[in-house]
Amino acid sequence: MASTILQPSDSASVSHPGLSNAAELESLLKTGDWDAAAASVLVHLRRTPGDVRIFASVIRSLTSERGFGGAQAGLQTLNQALRELWPDTGSLPNGDEFDISLRWLDEVREWLRHVPLATRGNKQYAYLDFLEAQRTGSEVIEPGLPKAESEKKQSALRQRFEKGYLSVEQWQHAVSETPRKVYVDAAEALRRIRSTYASIEAHLTQIVPKDWNWSIPPLDQPEINALWDRGAKEIQSLIDDIVAEKLDTTASVTDEEKLVRSPDVNDPVEQASQVVDNGSAKDVPARSDTSWQIAVTLARKDIAAGMVEIAGIADPQLTGRDEFFRKLDVAELYLERAQSATALIILEQLAAEMTERKLAGWESRSTVARVWKALYVARQMNNKKSEAEKILEELCRIAPWHAQAAIDAANNYLKSAK
User: Fold this and answer.
1) DSSP assignment of 173-198
2) Is residue 239 part of a domain?
3) In this predicted model, what pLDDT tens digit does every residue of 231-264 receive, in sequence order?
């Protein structure tokens, strides 16, 4: 299928009464001067605070033209603008105006799904093309398939190909022709996108009155939605799998591929990822770095080999926020493999740390809910029903929209264990 990337003509119109230089901004977007466009928005919102919906056009255009890197740049500018325009509760517009001004954030997942991930010839393919390829399935006609069923499958394949959709094999071929570094860079950009979005969520959660019953639209797939509403986390998972499959274990990793980076001092999430030890801050490697994601992916396929790889990465690292999330990753891996007793030991320790350090007041609700959900499942699987119900009560208090997902996950694990 031809590239599903959003075209500039779809997104380069920014006329808006809240911005005094809409014509100038539109011109900047059409010429592709994205950094100047983002700066222009921020400068004029500082001078005459307007409607932040202007960022919908900017971020969509940035994503269209510069992919995940553009999306991250746009979201970082939005993060800065929100903290300047709305530093506290008293600076917010009224509830209805506030909701309308940020409702467009629910579209960001869709923009990310259109970013090209693979190239074949002169065509580019995005995450949506991957989903369509999964729907098409394999081109292979199984030996011994009855003639009627074989003809039915061939007919279905022809119809899909006529509409421009890929098969699984065609998607895999496009991926094989795309350099590995493209996916390494994409994984890093998505990590930064999710980090920046979490920072936006943390700020808004702190200043928005609770009685507004408002929550930021999820950047990852919402719990209740299905295949076609997947978001940043699901795209990153696919990319991590591709990176792992493309990894040549016999070749040395270049300095460039190690993606050594320094913390962004302007990003509160980056600042929060540092550990304070005896009054001095120590840098902690990003918890979603590519080598860690590769190790987790390997563990999903082979728990023994994967844990050896994980140990090699985790053992030399400093303790702190990074270590906390890596332990959570490992606990979830053990749950997936029905090794619930081991998972429970890890999760109880993480829960105690959250309580002791009052992390629920610092981390996003989605992060806190992730720990409580996993702990609820682990306690249910270990027949600790009353303790599990206490965690469910806590989950309902902090993030009730995650409660049903926790119950469903526990039921699924218990069924699979029988």
Assistant:
1) HHHHTS-HHHHHHHHHHHHHHHHHHH
2) no
3) 888 898 889 888 887 764 334 444 333 333 333 3
- Residue 195, C-beta contacts closer than 8 angstroms, at least 6 positions apart: 267, 269, 270
User: Is there a contact between 66 and 34 (Cβ–Cβ < 8 Å)?
Assistant: yes
Backbone angles phi, psi at 80, to 5 degrees: -65, -45
Residue 116: strand, helix, or coil: strand
- Residue range of the domain that includes 47: 8-115+180-212
Residue 414's H or E segment, with its range, is helix 403-417
Which is nearest to 113 in space by CA: 2, 8, 6, 196?
6
> Which one of 197, 212, 227 terminates a domain?
212
Confidence of residue 74 (pLDDT cuts 50, 70, 90): confident
Number of domains the chain contains:
2
Q: What is the pLDDT of residues 369-388, one digit of tens each?
A: 888 888 998 999 898 988 98
Same domain flag for 328 and 203: no
- The verdict on residue 127 lying in a domain is no
Token pair recorded at residue 357: 């350090």
- Residue 125 covered by a domain: no
Torsion angle, alpha carbons of 307, 196, 38, 44, to 10: -170
| CATH (domain of 340) | 1.25.40
Find all residues with CB under 8 Å of 392, minimum gap 6, and list them. 376, 403, 406, 407
Q: Say whether both 329 and 205 belong to one domain.
A: no
